[in-house]
Amino acid sequence: MKRGLKPLPDYLRPRLKLVFVGFNPGLHSARRRHYYAGPRNQFWALLFESGLVAKTMGYSQDAQLLELGMGLTDIVKRPTRGAKELRTIEIRQGARVLQRKLERYQPDAVAFVGKGVYAKFIGSKSRKVDWGFQPETIGRTRLFCLPSTSGANTSLPHAEKLEWFRKLREWLPAISR
């Protein structure tokens, strides 16, 4: 772990309608002690523009998502410059820990923020991961894959990322209790 940088807390509790899962905190997020705090990260804008939240929010309000029935966590809690710095063993261990957390809290849905995040979580090297609904479940919890919101992800324009966030918003009422 980078000197002096601590893992971000999990924002989890029972009966959430949605939990967002990232790979691990970036250095900007770790320094600010908030999720998706990178200067070019589009997460908070996409959350509002898609209608998943009714008001604009910023990274400093990440804990407030719990009040809206949403949570935040990562597969690996160790902050790094990028996910490529993570070791295979810590991803595997983190995936097992995350699995247990999700089994314990049983949210209605989990949205993995990035195909790579989801592929690493399920341990798949062979199955092609697409955005949207996933065939796997964790108990009764349904899984969804969103495009990465990182500023480094330039493979999709903002409008396409927004489309997937909107599909998630439309899908949620169908699976909520």
Please tag this protein with its features.
177 residues, alpha/beta, Uracil-DNA Glycosylase, subunit E, five-stranded mixed beta sheet, 5 helices
Description:
32% of the residues lie in helices and 16% in strands. A five-stranded mixed sheet has the order 2-1-3-5-4. With 177 residues, the chain is an alpha/beta fold. The protein has a single domain, classed as 3-Layer(aba) Sandwich (Uracil-DNA Glycosylase, subunit E). The mean pLDDT is 91. It is built from five helices and five strands.
What order do the helices and strands come in, and which of them pair?
Layout: E1 18-22, H1 27-32, H2 43-49, E2 70-74, H3 88-105, E3 109-113, H4 115-122, E4 132-138, E5 141-146, H5 158-175
Parallel strand pairs: 1-2, 1-3, 3-5
Antiparallel strand pairs: 4-5
Q: Average the pLDDT over all residues and give the rounded result.
A: 91
In whole angstroms, how far apart are the ends?
39 Å
Q: Write out the CATH superfamily name.
A: Uracil-DNA glycosylase-like domain
- What is the tally of helical segments? 5
- Strand residue percentage: 15-25%
Low-confidence stretches: none
Q: What count of structural domains?
A: 1
CATH class: Alpha Beta
How many distinct beta strands? Answer: 5
* Overall SS class: alpha/beta
- Broad shape: globular
Q: H/E element string?
A: EHHEHEHEEH
- Reported by name, the CATH topology is Uracil-DNA Glycosylase, subunit E
Radius of gyration: 15 Å
